[in-house]
Design a protein that fits this description.
339 residues; alpha/beta; Quinone Oxidoreductase, Chain A, domain 1; Rossmann fold; seven-stranded mixed β-sheet; globular; binds NADP nicotinamide-adenine-dinucleotide phosphate
């Protein structure tokens, strides 16, 4: 690493520069390092997209002010630099920036930090699920969730808030223990993934969320076995171009990225396959509202398992991408405080 002069020439009328205080490492960052993620051209790579920081420069045409406490929505424009940096440059029209840079209405968020973007994606996904299925809420529904990663745990928080009972199934013990120890899930809400195939959990769930790193055929089969006849299988975990489920029926990558719903038949059961992708500014606003009004239901701060410095980041992220390191919950990078 060397020292570089600040790129003054990049400070245009259409530019917001954010100095992040905290950045989050997402599974998508690791996937982009080893090339196992299809990058959509309209929004660019995700590498370094979870952050909370201060606008330190706001061009005259941006609608922002220096000093604004902000976060990023990476689903709007590819004309931005990575969030894993001391400064992040976002360029766009006023309308684009209005979506891509989101004001944080919690002045104290840095005292007990949580990452707005992954929660906004969950808020978006559940809103889509209710829209697509014409359900007013999840009151009385049995929701099964595959994966107790950050996504699975936030789904559990929100589904419970909407009146559902939740059962989360996770392959490894580390994330199961994390969910229990942090009191994010109660003892009876978290199970080994192998239990999903037991009689007690087969044909039980009205909705099954599939939220692991990759929505493999095997995991989708497990989800479909857990589902009741007429249930919804909601695909949130990674899919790639050409993936289908049941094999040769629904194109699950398109279903997820274009947020559709499709009926399929699986071993004599009728299932609706649906999914969601990304989020909008209104999802951030709803995420902030939920967190402020229902802190007990949304203990998002408890998802943090570790904080590191930006200097430690390259080594750790390469280890995560290589499968040599794996931390439950969220690993956060805390920027150095200027002296
Ligand atoms: N649709 C969207 O808008 C959107 C937004 C954000 C993220 N996502 C997707 O959601 C995925 C999960 O995100 P996250 O933040 O929850 O990641 P995470 O915190 O890293 O958790 C990954 C989860 O996947 C499980 N897993 C990995 N490989 C598995 C396998 N072979 N079999 C069974 N379980 C496996 C892990 O279980 P173990 O503990 O056993 O390893 C863990 O529960 C991401 O990879 C991404 O594709 C989608």
């Amino acid at each position: 690493m060397g020292a570089h002069t600040f790129p003054q020439d990049a400070l245009g009328e259409d530019t917001v520069v954010i100095k992040p205080d905290y950045m989050g490492i997402c599974r998508a960052d690791a996937k982009e390092i080893h090339g196992s993620r299809d990058v959509p051209e309209d929004r660019g790579p995700l590498f370094g997209h979870e952050l909370v920081g201060t606008a330190v420069f706001a061009g005259a045409g941006t609608g922002f002010q220096e000093g604004d406490l902000v976060t990023l929505n990476p689903n709007i424009t590819p004309t931005r630099t990575t969030g894993f940096a001391e400064y992040v440059f976002v360029h766009g029209t006023k309308e684009q920036l209005d979506q891509a840079v989101v004001r944080v209405p919690e002045p104290d968020i840095r005292d007990d930090i949580w990452m707005p973007e992954p929660f906004a994606c969950i808020v978006h996904a559940l809103r889509k699920l209710l829209d697509l299925t014409n359900l007013p809420s999840l009151q009385g529904k049995k929701v099964g969730i595959i994966g107790a990663g950050c996504a699975g745990l936030m789904f559990a928080m929100y589904a419970r808030h909407l009146g559902a009972s939740v059962s989360v199934f996770n392959r490894g013990e580390t994330r199961r223990a994390f969910a229990r120890d942090q009191k994010i899930l109660a003892e009876g809400e978290i199970h080994p993934l192998s239990d999903a195939n037991s009689q007690a959990h087969q044909n039980q769930f009205d909705i099954v969320m599939v939220a692991p790193t990759i929505a493999t055929t095997e995991l989708l089969e497990t989800a479909a076995d857990m589902a009741t006849d007429g249930a919804v299988l909601f695909v949130y975990g990674g899919t790639r171009k050409g993936d289908s489920f049941p094999v040769g029926q629904a194109d699950i990558d398109t279903v997820r990225r274009q947020e559709r719903i499709e009926s399929v038949e699986y071993l004599g059961k009728q299932l609706d396959i649906s999914g969601a992708y990304g989020c909008l500014r209104e999802d951030y606003e709803e995420a902030f509202r939920l967190h402020a009004e229902h802190p007990h239901d949304f203990p998002l701060e408890k998802l943090t398992s570790r904080q590191i410095s930006l200097d430690d980041f390259p080594h750790l992220v390469m280890d995560i991408a290589a499968g040599k390191a794996d931390h439950p919950g969220k690993v956060l990078i805390k920027a150095a405080i200027a002296s």
